[in-house]
Amino acid sequence: MLALNNIEVVYDGVVLVLKGVSLNAEEGHITTLLGANGAGKSTTLKAISGLLRTERGQVTKGSVELNGERLDRLLPFDVVKRGVVQVFEGRRVFENLTVEENLVAGAHIRSDFAAVREGIEQVYDAFPALKERRDNQSGYLSGGEQMLVIGRALMYDPKVILLDEPSLGLAPLLVEEIFGIVRRLRDERNLTVLLVEQNAALALDIADHGYVMENGRIVLEGAAETLRENSDIKEFYLGLNEVGARKSYRDVKHYKRRKRWLS
106-155 pLDDT, tens per residue? Predict the structure, then answer.
C-alpha cells in the first residue's frame, strides 16, 4: 500500500501548499485524486516521487510510505527503484527518438536485455497502436504520445504508477481508450494506480476509491461509487443539479463551496 500520512509541503521555506494530507492507495486498486487547478494535486504526486527538490519544495511534516518503507527521504531515482513511477502531465516524449527508443529509455534501470525485450512486447500488447508505429519518430504521434509515456513508465516494471491528468488535451475517444487500458493494467498486472484528474466523471468511472482536494487539504473521500452519487460531487465536479440536469455554465462558474466540506 502507498500511504501519505499527514504530510505538509512547503516551497521556498515559507509557502505552505499541502496542509496535513493523508491518503491511501491500495495495492491493485485505482485511487483517484480530484480537485480544481491549484488544489495541490500535482504537488502531492511530486511529494511521492521525490521531485519537490527540483522546485525548492520539501515535505516538512508527516511521511510517505510504500509498504511501510519511507519514500519521502529518498532521491527520485531511488523512488523509481522502489517501484514508484510518475507519468507527468503534458505527454513528455523524447520527440527525436522513435517509439521503441523511447521505450528502451524507460528501461534504463534494468540491466537484463531479455527482460527489456519482454517489457517492450508487453507494452505493445497493451498498446497495439504503438507497435504499428514502433519505428516512427515519437514527435509525430499526435494523440498517441499519452500511450507512449504510459508505456515508457511500464518499462520500469513499476508497482505503483502515478498518472497526472492523462486526459488533458486528448479527443474523447482516445481518452476512453487510454482509461480502458489503465483499468486493464490494474486487473491484469495488479498495478496500483494513483490518478490525478480533473475529468471527475471518467476518473470515478474507473477508480475504486477517490479523494477530493481543495486548497491543499483532503475535504472528502470514499468509494468511487459513493462519490459518484454524492450531491456535492454531482454539482461541483459533474455539473449536475439535484434532479440530474446539467447546470448552466454560469451556474458552474459562480458556485460557492459548501462550508460543511471543511467542517
Answer: 888 777 888 889 999 999 998 888 998 999 898 887 767 888 989 999 99
Alpha helices in 138-262 (DSSP H): 145-154, 172-189, 200-206, 224-229, 231-236, 249-253
Cell numbers for 142: 499526435
The answer to whether 34 and 210 are in contact (CB under 8 A) is yes
What is the pairing mode between strands 2-11 and 57-66? Answer: antiparallel
How crowded is residue 111: how many other Cβ atoms within 10 Å of its Cβ? 8
Looking at residue 197, what DSSP letter applies? E
- The pTM (predicted TM-score) of the whole model is 0.86
Q: What are phi and psi of 178, to 5 degrees?
A: -65, -40
> Is residue 235 within 8 Å of 255, Cβ to Cβ?
yes
Q: Which three cell numbers stand for residue 49?
A: 516521487
8 Cβ neighbours under 8 A, 6+ residues apart: 16, 18, 19, 20, 21, 59, 60, 61, 62
- Tens digit of each residue's pLDDT (9 = 90 or more) over 40-80: 999 999 999 999 988 899 999 999 999 999 999 899 999 99
Give the C-alpha distances (Å, rounded to integers) separating 8 from 4, 15, 21, 186: 10, 11, 7, 29
Host H or E run for residue 117: helix 113-126
3-state class of 29 per DSSP? coil
